[in-house]
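dude i think i finally got it to work??
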Amino acid sequence: MATLAATPRDVLWRDGTASLYRFRRSASAPPAGALPVLVVPSMINKWYVVDLRPGASLVEALVAGGLDVYCLDWGVAQDEDRYLAWDDVLARLGRAVRFTERAAGSKRVGLLGYCMGATLAGIYSALDPSHVAAFVNLAGPFDFSHGGLLRTMVDPQWFDATAIAEAGNVTPDQMQSGFVALRPSAQVAKWVSLIDRAHDAASREAFDALEAWAGDNIPFPASAYATYIEELYQKNSLVKGEHHVRGRRVDLGNITCPVLTIAAERDIICPLPAARALNETCGSPDKELIVVPGGHVGAVVGSRAPKVLYPAMRDWLRARLATTEARETTCN
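look at this
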């Protein structure tokens, strides 16, 4: 089986359960010469889906492309983290941004958020736009009225997020059962598909790596979970301009830096309209939408990702974060 999270990295900083990684650049990589990129994964899965295995790693591709890449690992929530509020999560992201700036000797960063991490990165970009030189939304929802089957599952008519959170952190089994319920036949289909490709060692290796990550689930802090479901999924307050963090209204129109939104064709977690809403509501004059093949996870680690997704993101970030352009661009 391939080594998971294989790109060499150093731990620069810790904050509670969270860690900030900086990935080492090889001697053969092009000179960095650009602002740093901070990758913000989802809080409900382990971070290394962005560095799954050699050859199927977004981080590896960005580093090889000459970018100075960092990643915020949210860590594994402990029992006492049940009181970690949504506001606290955004504050932790803000500290990670500022530490990245200090480590890189820059005044701004490029943010690349995946899934829920993209939603968090977008909220941060709207609240503190002066720190963000460019923002990549990789399959992150902003208009939760288009949240697909997951939005239906948490409809307030039959789903009480506060009641669930009162029992403590939401467990991996609770969340995993919800995702399985979205596509009950998917578990059978993946094993049938593996049988068709069992003779191919590379396919088996890819399957094993993805299964290892998918089964490596982590708890969701209870307080933050309740806010995430109620405010975003049930009230859709973010895209309406009614979401508040620490008393401040989150206005997506404040995001005026370059924006790239990437949606996957068969994404049932973040359907195209949910992701595209960022481009429709942000204030940036430089915004682009790319639709790639695959589903929510397959688009990021599948066989076509190194050929389609990784080069597109690498080239877009290099162009927007180049030192000469970054000095001329304002993002406020």
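Strands lie at 9-15, 18-23, 37-40, 69-73, 109-114, 132-138, 244-245, 248-249, 259-264, 287-292.
im so relieved honestly
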